């Protein structure tokens, strides 16, 4: 997975530059004409993923929760690079009606990306019933409903791509002192993805989980950015663009299915 393009002199492309060109051409052919729904796709990592899918030739439907300005900025970026994009705002208040509303707006997508999921911190003994219901509703139940809802259509078409985003350091079962409920829900996405892969794999459908490290986005306050820098003292943490390119590369690879992949530079919390 590459963080940026390699530069070469005109007329004398380097080995890596040529490989990038071949990879980009393959991805564009693969996603050309495919309809993609990106839940939480107007900003942050989701916004970067929406733009990357547009570059890859997909017709991108961008869901945003609240900011028309942020949504329009992402749509302009996709269209400005020659991509096709539509978008809509919808505040998700519960998983069942939320999933139904999203898929009524964008029925039968070829590509589903779920880049939205609220975050709360607190030690396990301080998390109440409301915290458990809120975090599991939107970080495991909503993705589960969406994946179940689109899987039959993808199997019938014999092609589909599903990408969901886990949390930092949730690629394997472990304990957490400050994010136990959020991280439990995000870790459970691996079971859903591997189950969808077993069901859809024989029919050309893949479902994978990407677990980003601590990432600065436009949503990050100064305290969060300082925390991120403290955990990446020698090198920068992953950028939204790097994570988005990894996500599209993952979806472009037909042999990667049911994978739960950290993209965190080896971070240990």
Quickly list its features.
disordered N terminus; Rossmann fold; 8 helices; 269 residues; globular
SSE blueprint and pairings:
Blueprint lengths: L14 H17 L3 E5 L4 H12 L3 E6 L3 H13 L3 E6 L5 H11 L5 E4 L14 H29 L2 E6 L14 H21 L4 E8 L9 H10 L8 H13 L7 E4 L6
Parallel strand pairs: 1-2, 1-4, 2-3, 4-5, 5-6, 6-7
Task: Describe, in plain words, how this protein is organized in 3D.
It is a single chain. By secondary structure, this protein is an alpha/beta fold. The protein has a single domain, classed as NAD(P)-binding Rossmann-like Domain (Rossmann fold, 3-Layer(aba) Sandwich). Helices cover about 45% and strands about 15% of the residues. It contains 8 helices and 7 strands. Helix 2 packs parallel to helix 3, helix 4 runs parallel beside helix 5 and helix 5 runs parallel beside helix 6. The radius of gyration is 18 Å and the shape is globular.
Mean pLDDT over all positions: 87
CATH class reads: Alpha Beta
SSE sequence, one letter per element: HEHEHEHEHEHEHHE
Counting structural domains, the number is: 1
Q: Number of helix segments?
A: 8
Beta strand %: 5-15%
Structural class of the helices, strands and pairings?
A: alpha/beta
**Contiguous runs where pLDDT drops below 50 for at least 5 residues:** 1-22
Name the CATH superfamily assignment: NAD(P)-binding Rossmann-like Domain
Quick one: biggest sheet?
7 strands, parallel
* Strand numbers in spatial order across the main sheet: 3-2-1-4-5-6-7
Might you state the CATH topology name?
A: Rossmann fold
User: What coarse outline follows from CA principal-axis ratios?
Assistant: globular
What is the alpha-carbon Rg in Å?
18 Å
- What is the CA-CA span between the terminal residues? 23 Å
């Amino acid at each position: 997975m590459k963080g940026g393009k390699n530069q070469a002199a005109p007329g004398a492309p380097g080995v890596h530059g040529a490989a990038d060109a071949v990879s980009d051409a393959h991805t564009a052919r693969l996603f050309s004409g495919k309809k993609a729904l990106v839940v939480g796709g107007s900003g942050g990592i989701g916004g970067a993923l929406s733009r990357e899918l547009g570059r890859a030739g997909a017709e991108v439907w961008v869901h945003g929760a609240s900011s028309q300005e942020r949504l329009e900025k992402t749509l302009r970026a996709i269209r400005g690079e020659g991509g096709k994009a539509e978008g809509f705002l919808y505040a998700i208040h519960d998983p069942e009606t939320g999933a139904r509303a999203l898929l009524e707006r964008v029925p039968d997508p070829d590509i589903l990306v779920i880049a939205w999921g609220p975050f709360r911190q607190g030690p396990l003994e301080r998390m109440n019933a409301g915290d458990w219901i809120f975090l599991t509703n939107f970080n495991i139940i909503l993705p589960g409903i969406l994946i179940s809802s689109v899987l039959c259509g993808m199997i019938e078409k014999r092609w589909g791509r599903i990408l969901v985003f886990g949390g930092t350091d949730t690629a394997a079962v472990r304990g957490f002192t400050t994010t136990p409920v959020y991280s439990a829900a995000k870790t459970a996405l691996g079971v859903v993805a591997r189950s969808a892969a077993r069901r859809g794999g024989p029919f050309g459908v893949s479902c994978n989980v990407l677990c980003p490290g601590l990432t600065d986005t436009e949503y990050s306050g100064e305290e969060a950015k300082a925390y991120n820098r403290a955990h990446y003292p020698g090198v920068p943490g992953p950028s939204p663009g790097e994570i988005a390119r990894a996500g599209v590369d993952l979806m472009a690879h037909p042999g990667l299915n049911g994978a739960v992949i950290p993209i965190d530079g080896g971070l240990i919390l």
